[in-house]
Design a protein that fits this description.
single chain; alpha+beta; 3 helices
Length: 138
């Protein structure tokens, strides 16, 4: 069995964003030379997420509005966590969207359903953060 590990780094200039990282993950699969196996992609920060969905701007807009309704940023005083910081909402948004995704690799490619893509979700940007890519297989 082969294994492969790589960190992808992101520095998003805004507080929140959704970035399609599917092509970055395929590059990792190509580098790993794994043709049959699994790839784990996980955010290594508690205010960021990795998830799978459609790459459609209206959906991303809807996600942003929905998450803001569920865990609004302001007023920051509503959260006990916000003592000296203002990102309690980002922790909650990450919990909703999830930490990681696992995708099968078949024939050296991501084995997706129709329209599926991999996204990095940022909920407290403006600093460098990383995503772990771990691949195992043959």
């Amino acid at each position: 069995m082969k294994t492969y590990r790589k960190e992808l780094w992101f520095e998003i200039p805004t507080r929140r964003a959704f970035i399609n990282i599917t092509s970055d993950i395929q590059v990792c699969i190509n580098e790993s030379r794994v043709t049959e196996g699994l790839v784990l992609i996980n955010a290594m920060h508690i205010t960021a997420s990795v998830f799978i969905n459609d790459d459609e701007s209206g959906l991303h807009h809807d996600y942003d509005l929905w998450l803001e309704k569920l865990a609004p940023h302001a007023p920051v005083s509503q959260y006990k966590h916000n003592v000296g910081e203002d990102n309690a909402d980002a922790h909650m948004k990450r919990q909703i969207m999830g930490r990681e995704s696992v995708v099968a690799i078949t024939g050296g490619k991501l084995d997706f359903g129709t329209w599926e893509q991999i996204f990095y979700g940022e909920f407290d940007g403006r600093r460098k953060k990383r995503v772990l890519v771990k691949i195992i297989g043959e």
